[in-house]
Fold each of these.
Amino acid sequence: MPGWHEKTAELQAQGRLQLAGIVQEQHPERARLFMLWKQMSWPVMVDSLNLLGVEVVPITLLIDEAGVVQAVNPDAGALERFLGREPAEAEPAFTATRPEPLKQAEDLFHWGSRSDLHRVVEIYGSALERQPDDAPSAFRLGVALRRRYDSPERREGDFQASVRAWQQALDLNPNQYIWRRRIQQYGPRLDKPYPFYDWVPRARREIAERGGTPVALPVEPSGAEFASPGDFGTGSPAPAGEPDAEGRIHRDEKGFVLLESTVVPDRLEPGGTARVHLAFRPNAEIQAHWNNEVGGLVVWLRPPDGWQVDARVHDVAGPPAPVSLETRRVEFEVRVPGGPLRDEGIPGYALYYVCEDVGGTCLYRRRDFVVPVRTGR
Amino acid sequence: MTIRGLAAAALLITGSGLVPPAPGAAALEVGRKFPQLVLPLLEGEPLSVGAFRGRKLMLQVFASW
């Protein structure tokens, strides 16, 4: 795409050609950062719901003055011919219609408030109940769930439910690579065709170096979105140095910290690999917050026999402030053994320093958990 | 036309009561009119590809990854 941008700069300056884009991403602000980085200023529309129905990107279209598609993925010669051609007679636009509730869902997703996402989820969920093979609605349900997960309207399990909906869509149409990418984006390294957002740090640095201000990203790319494709890893490290092997740290019985886990993909087959996302949030209902004066969050994993994790211990440092409220995220990859599997979980625990505004106490606490993993199809 | 102008044109389309079609990949065949789909710009305002009528357009469908 930047290649076309450079080749057509003169044509744009002469007014002979207009450039525009439609981006197929869950987090469109990242495309804004990309455009700023590449110094491309033409208008770009956002089609997170994949209403256009394209199955791959990138696609370049030449559209004439009458709105007729004249070429798909043209070469330089086709562009020359296009520029010299008169507008053509057209076949009518594709005018498939869809039920009013789905139209309403699209409008609310694009133009509504964050709280309208509940209604969007409801509409797509109902559409799927009525017609379980409605693959586009399954994909769009996933998009809306993930959008809600990234907002203050989040409901527990939204991320996992989005992955499940995307998988349902992909099972119905395995050739839809835009949908497949949405799962791979958050999934394990083995499934990745490329790192998705590894360009972000470089873009920020280069924009700042030329005196600009990078676009702020409301949703920072996660570890999965930076990870390079590749092997599972070097295997599970030996469990030496377990931080609380005897379980002597007091448990977090009051629920100072809430945990949400998401496994991508949603189901694992024998020998398969998944990426697990853990999100730890201070419990706002009791005004809990992290205490950063002593240490960060430590997670220790105890995978079942025969299961491998790429690292058993994970350490997340807090920001350079005495207290904070941020969500702390841990990601790891798990490989399940070959042969018959049953639904199982990955046990582990987290250790953290927390304070409660109400009682004014600060404590060191342990939270045990089991990450549920679904297996089979 | 500026982005603001294009957005205004798109608003006219949405305001006219026209329901944008759900096109599907078939909409992108050579010889067909591009669907009248109104989408938000990265900056949030609505825009339709139809707002570029009267101009030769190169449309990139892409992702930044």
Note: Chain A has eleven helices and 15 strands.
Amino acid sequence: MTVWSRKDLLGIEELDAAEVLTILDTAATMKEISTREIKKVPVLRGKTVVNLFFESSTRTRVSFEIAEKRLSADSVNVSASGSSVSKGETLLDTARNLEAMRPDIIVLRHPSPGTPQLLARRLPCSVINAGDGAHEHPTQALLDAFTIRERLGRVEGLTVGIFGDIAHSRVARSNIHALRKLGARVLVGGPPTMIPPGIEGLGAEVAPGLEEMLPLLDVLIVLRIQLERQGGLLFPSAREYATLFGLGRERLCLGRPGLLVMHPGPINRGLEIAPEVADGTRSLILDQVTNGVAVRMAVLYLLTGAHRGATAADAVRGAA
Amino acid sequence: MSAGRRLLIRGGRVIDPASGRDAVADLLVVDDSVASVGPEASGRSDGAAVIEAAGLWVLPGLIDLHTHLREPGFEYKETVLTGSRAAAAGGFTAVSCMPNTDPPNDSAAVTRAILRKAEEAGLVRVYPIGCITEGQQGQRMAEFGDLVSAGCRAVSDDGRPVMNAGVMRRALEYSRHFGIPVISHCEDLNLAGAGVAHEGAIATRLGLKPIPAAAEEAMVAREVVLARQTGARVHIAHVSTRGSVTMIAAAKAEGLPVTAEATPHHLTLTDEAILGFDTSTKVNPPLRSADDREALRRALAEGVVDAVATDHAPHGLADKDLEFDAAANGLVGLETALPLVLRLVAEGACSLHRAIEALTWGPARILDVPGGRLAPGDPADITLVAPGEEWTVEPERFFSKGRNSPFRGWRLTGRVRATIVGGRTVYRDGAIVDEGARRGFSTPP
């Protein structure tokens, strides 16, 4: 039974729990494809996907591109530099021109919140939000929920902490929405300069600090500190941040024995997370990356409507 | 008694807060002035043209303290002519236009050019506002003397607030020589940063860069302190937060020469309006919280806010059909202001008397211009309103070039039926009349 009728994936906020679970269940089926010797199924054969990236990205862009290729879609990458954007064309004009070439899906990464909504309203093709400013990054939250569920068997009833620059983090917002919808308790924390007013409105509780949060958690998501953007304004120095707020081995010992650690990447080793924690047995960081491909395959599959009349398992089996 | 051109407005409800009048009465206009109001008006109306106003409200012509006419420099957004049409259609008989044109209105030459355009349009009175500093750069004072003698009624750097308190202090002192108000767009640019939305739960949810209430309040505090220091007249533009209202009320209680305006959109909307990323809701100061709106409404009702001003800010599609971050600030307000204020009255937020006063006598006193009242001898600037008429806001039908209204599709009650400026009907029943007549009334009396 597949619950999916949307044209676009713009954010987690507008999804209900059944839709989130549909994506996770579909991703579970897709994950197997990446373990085959021939990692390719023809379910999106003849479909065109444009990866339109207005911000630099390695992980997300490559993850989408691999997902597209494993489903046999034709994909094209457009980045802001070296395109007509640098010649003064507006976002809508760029999008309209791409649309005129009849893609089936546009995957958009843009620094300004709300741009996926703008495109989705105007274009007949599907739009996937691959991160819009500090607003949402739905596929990241989905892969995080998938990873938690895969490891712990459930999300409901867990307590998940998110620590770092909540104010500027789309990962934090999408994760709060997703985890709350799936029945988890979410605690957020960070230096006071990084906690935005009204974050409780999304369903998160603000913890007084990392030490207070750790003993309560099943999972801790550590956020990347954007040194290049915020150094000197939100915290005095990398040294002080690492000392006061970084997740090192000693702090990790404040957590429960089974505490799992996640990070959306790219990590700053020795800043928000110590190398021995990132590489340690509690770390799910590389599982997240692996699962990112499966989750994005699921989203692409559902949005193209390939699921209609067939289950994901059928589609994948028939393809092999 | 003069044998001049006569116009009798018969049987309307004359609501004139400045005269303390709210009664069904005839109003006689002779030439460009109000001759009499009340029973004697009909007795002297032999040979007068007659407007039957039974069922209509007869108001002093509305005066907008804060309009962007965009000319010179941004004629694709609005011109003095199209802005004058929008004003007339909205019931405004006078508008005061902000100096953030290109070039900015920091010289008598620009002021005269605007007034010449207004005279050619021949619709409503235009009172230009000059710059505080040359080129709105916040450094060297503009030539207030030249600006005032050319026709400016106030000075402001509008959306480019004077961040240097020393410069502002001297400008305020110098303004006393002319008795003009200095209009301050209160925004500490360091606190506002690159923000695009009110700092609070909504901006947090949408991930939009926030503008804290403190960005406005820090500057309101500074202006109050400087008004006390200099004794100069300070007018606070588009007040939007509870904290600002509190400080302005205290300044007034202390007897400082501080006045304030609020916009229909800040009195009507909250930051919830931005939830769909509709760029017509992007405005500076940003739409604030429900608590701020409540404080503004009370301030209007109690007279802490002296005037309702539109901050009419027309933009082209190219300025607004963009990402929320990239879109220009501002919305068009002239053609929706009156019914939005009447909506506040209908909701019980403020009395009808106060609402009309804030659109007429309030702004007239701040600018120190004739009008805003309908006593014998006053200019015959009159707005006729059908108070019960419902209509739907369709920006495509605006006289303004701007289509950037967050009120698209709203059902509003109360519609302007006629706008009379200096005894001449310039707008009636949905159409501009007398356009292009060169009557010269826009020259400062």
Note: Residues 17-136+290-319 of chain A form a domain with the Rossmann fold fold (CATH 3.40.50.1370).
